[in-house]
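ok so i was messing around last nite and threw this chain in just to see what happens. nothing serious, just curious
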Amino acid sequence: MEKRWVYKQEAPEHVVKHLADELKISPTLTGILCQRDICTFQEAKAFFRPSFDALHDPFLMKGMDHAVRRLTEAVHHSEKILVYGDYDVDGTTSVALMYSFLRQYTHQVDFYIPDRYKEGYGVSQQGIEWAAENNFGLIISLDCGIKSADKVALAASLGIDFIICDHHLPDEDVPQAIAVLDPKQVDCPYPYKELSGCGVGFKLAQAFCLQNNIDVQSLHQLLDLLVISIASDIVPITGENRILAYYGLQYLNSQQPMRPGLEALKELAGITGEMDITNIVFGFAPRINAAGRMGDAKRSVSMLLAQTKEQAIQMADIINESNKERRSKDTNITKEALQMIEEDDFLRNANSTVLYKESWHKGVIGIVASRCIEKYYRPTIILTHSNGKAAGSARSVHGFNVHRAIESCSDLLDQFGGHMYAAGLTLPIENIEAFRERFEQVVADTITAEQKIPQIEVDAPLSLNQITRNFYNIVRQMEPFGPGNMRPVFVSECVFDTGSLRVVGDSHLKLRLTQDGFPGSLDAIGFGFSDYYKPISKGIPFDVCYTIEENIFRGIATLQLNIKDIRIK
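result:
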């Protein structure tokens, strides 16, 4: 599939040069820092040397004083506290973090995760009624609650107080809770707005410690859960998230024993080296998520809270089986969906994809939508049958607001919600065809030609002779990578293979690249690029887009280019 290479805007030359002189590093690297709003020596120091001292005062968050006062009261009076969370990774890690934190100070605490299919997203009536039946006086909701004004009112009518820890955009109708902690509230003065749900819970724990003269160092043991939430919920790894992720990875990779549940998960995921954001996103997150998608998300929390290796392995094995089931359904449904497109002339040439099949599993339709976009790059909605309705997940392409497009069809829907790149919707089954036609028309009228072509953001052009071990070491110090601080992408022009070109596996290219004026050569790997074997083998020069990584083979570490795209000259 053709891709657009979009070069990021260069920073002013004098700013780049001045920072390069101060840091004594390549102007190419300081140019990348400046693109990321790191333009002074002090900003660079804060970026490369994250410090706990730079975390914001949690009491700057609106409602924090009320939340800590009420939580302290509940702990001191041995009230029953219910920790309530969503069923995804952010929700389950949030619950595990808050539950394990509170268990140090009270045994009157339990947790609750709603059933994805019976109760749905957010705070449920069933959950509130369960809390009332079991005499809980306080509920702390994590990664949900900001849109649950009616459920918070129900809880109040049953004598249950609420503290909401959320990071989603609030509606106009903010719940009348004892405290609403959400930095995205319009009138919240908290300086950093991009915390995960688990991050908001961590700030509550931090404030509780400060208020009750507890050493905040005790919170470090919770950072492993927090970095998993940051990585998995795809929040920007900037500001406080960068500090918390940096120390969370440091804690995961320290010499002390890993949390038993995470150790079991690491073994099942086949992760042998150090943990990083990528390992979490592809190794931990799908497995933790699978419990909620295919069964009971409480299993994920139980695994994260397991005290012994035996308990952890038992829970992790169940979760891993859920992930295998999820993967099988995901693969099969994706195959069916792509076949439906390929066998239909209209769908093949459409500006959007809207597919429905009654038997598709609701827990994987969002994944399937993303998979379809990999082959047919356009706004995509996958629908299935749920409780007598069609329920769907939407995914979008870069720059196109799928939520706004769905909103244009709202008269055909029962409900919808989400954001620019992902949304959920429910509609009467009899409206599917009308919705498909309307959605296609809206997309056709509003999508641009550029938005139909996937893009790669390029940080900087680079000559191969600039790639040294010292250059790479500085790139590596920019970790942890993620949204807002992605691994730098470079382009080198007019490169060619030295003669070691070969196909590995079914469709991957292994090369050694060189360039005029560069006396050496560098290893490169191109996953899924075997179609380029013939032109490259003829010695034709090409431009290459890539990231730089370290490859360790038989204990020897070498630099390697991970190819993102190739353009034959």
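not much to say yet. The longest strand covers residues 556-568.
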